[in-house]
Amino acid sequence: MGIEEENHDHENPLLQSRSGFPSSSPVQPPFKRTGTLWTAVAHIITGVIGSGVLSLAWSLAQLGWIAGPLSMLFFAFVTLLSSFLLSNCHRSPHPEHGPIRNRSYLEAVHTTLGEKTAWVCGLFIQINLYGTGIAYVITSATSMRAIQISNCYHKYGHEATCEFGNSLFMLLFGAVQVVMSQAPDFHNIQWLSIVAAIMSFAYSTIGIGLGAAKVIGDGIVKGSIEGVSMSAAQKVWSVSQALGDIAFAYPYSIILMEIQDTLKSPPPENETMKKASTMAICITTFFYLCCGGFGYAAFGDQTPGNLLTGFGFYEPYWLIDFANACIVIHLVGGYQVFSQPFFAIVDKWFGEKFPDSDFINSHYTLKLPWLPTLKLNLFRLCFRTAYVASTTAIAMIFPYFNQVLGVLGALNFWPLSIYFPVEMYCVQRNIRAWTSKWIVLQIFSIVCLLVTMIALIGSIEGLLTAKFS
User: Fold this and answer.
1) Do the beta carbons of residue 241 and residue 466 sit within 8 Å?
2) Which one, of 142, 288, 291, lies nearest residue 211 by Cα?
3) Which spans does this entry mark as compositional bias, Basic and acidic residues (predicted)?
4) pLDDT tens per residue, range 12-58
5) Is the pLDDT at 190 greater than 70, yes or no?
6) How much of the chain exceeds pLDDT 70, in percent?
7) 3-class SS of residue 447
8) Domain segments of the chain as ranges
9) Of 336, 331, 339, nearest to 308 (Cα)?
10) At what angle do helices 105-113 and 253-260 cross, to 10 degrees?
């Protein structure tokens, strides 16, 4: 196959002539790939572990000690199988150019399934990115408010009435994002991704530590096999929402191709990626089980929706403040990580459609005292400000952490993690309809679709109930 020579592949030739087609990562010149198994594991873990980990204890409380861990293992298995299917789609055969690399999820869908399917896939990706931005506004504001409440409880006692709103903190977070969104592209904020990853591990570890300390201090493991006691109808909705929250915490489909494209060969990139996915998902699942398990064991039926802002923990207040500050810092960077790919698509599309427009293509230099020189683009300023304002406004209308995570997790889990990977695998491997392998894959897809629909319906019901109750 001559894999060694392909370390310097040219860009996918099928994508060079496409004008206006949305791509999650711009076409790049050839570069030497130096990624290894361990760098891939690190990328996956930092991409997966995020604010979703804070809702896992609540999810376990709804499902109980048997169904809860089994649900996490189910989503771990599905995510792993999906990653195996996707890793085989990194290279696509082509009669003229030979095997070509797909450097992003969207490129793989376009090359394998065609442009119309890729547009549908692109829509789901953008919904995922936009929805994650909304979730990050909600979570960051909740954490900022938790710091204020924690200090109030420490000063006036745990029985004090310490109630503060979210709106001001959401506006503050939105204002910061308006400024940060003016960075020209993703490469100008790579340092944010590193900081965000460190913060993510910090607050997740603190959550586990506080839960474990409370279980040890109380000397009792709370919780039950069936989970929180409630009526049958309420149980159905809460279980559905819990599945949506777990679904939000796991998949990393849309970043898998970018990670695999960094790997050197030999050995073949798909083999390295499969090993990395297995290791990373095992580590992540252990981490999730610890965080969710200790949280549920510590609080039982009273497990808060957000482990660090629900105030099951009051002391040490400074550690809770630090953990919530880590969440805010993580989400400041995380918002940009999820928004910049969409910004790049919009900039590229409008730039190509209106090449002579000064409003879209001209840049202006702004020099402020004691600050580095800034280059402003009027179109970027207007569009990105409107984008941040819209995510902030929706977050203010629906400021419900668990419910929003459940909707987002359910909405994107089946199409991005199951349907497109299965269809691409069938096309690339020429798996004909009604063969045994095709039937197994379709059953797998249908089962995951049913789980996703249950989670989506339950999460939407929870969101509407929270809004109008």
Assistant:
1) no
2) 291
3) 1-12
4) 444 433 333 344 444 444 556 777 888 788 778 877 777 678 889 99
5) no
6) 87
7) helix
8) 32-468
9) 331
10) 90
